[in-house]
Amino acid sequence: QVQLVESGGGLVQAGDSLTLSCVGSGGTFSNYALAWFRQGPGTEREFVAVISRAGRVRNYADSVRRRFTISRDNSKNTVILQMNSLKPEDTAIYYCAARYTVTGATPTDGYGSWGQGTQVTVSS
After folding, report:
1. Taking a C-beta distance cutoff of 8 angstroms, is the pair 37, 20 a contact?
2. 120 contacts: CB under 8 Å, gap ≥ 6
3. Cβ-count burial 103-123 (b if 16+ within 10 Å, e if not)
């Protein structure tokens, strides 16, 4: 299984931008669909965005569509979440996740590899 480490979280103001990074190791990165999830205070973990193995297909939660962009660089074993126009309700711990896939699927659940999470706090 691939191991994942996130970075880039922090404290920002509403309307600001922030970029999260996740680096993988221990597996063939291009065999995995990669996703970001988040868990806010007192809430369950929720899907944010996913990108297919080769990066051709991306899907987003409605709450972040047109504000967040997911991308990946398989040569660097990295997946990025660019977050723009941040809102206080985006405050959460953000997790990177990987799921082995044999096609260009973009699953929103069933992930077996997770990072430790990075905190994002958006003040109003």
Report:
1. no
2. 9, 10, 12, 18, 20, 38, 83, 86, 90, 91, 92, 93, 94
3. eeebebeebebbbebbebbbe
Dihedrals phi, psi of 53, to nearest 5 degrees: -55, -45
* Residue in this structure with the two tokens 């996913």, named with its chain if needed: 50
- Among 72, 69, 55, which residue's Cα sits nearest to residue 17? 69
List per-residue pLDDT tens for the chain, 124 residues long: 899 999 999 999 999 999 999 999 998 999 999 999 999 999 999 999 999 999 999 999 999 999 999 999 999 999 999 999 999 999 999 999 999 998 889 999 999 999 999 999 999 9
Structure tokens at 45: 């973990």
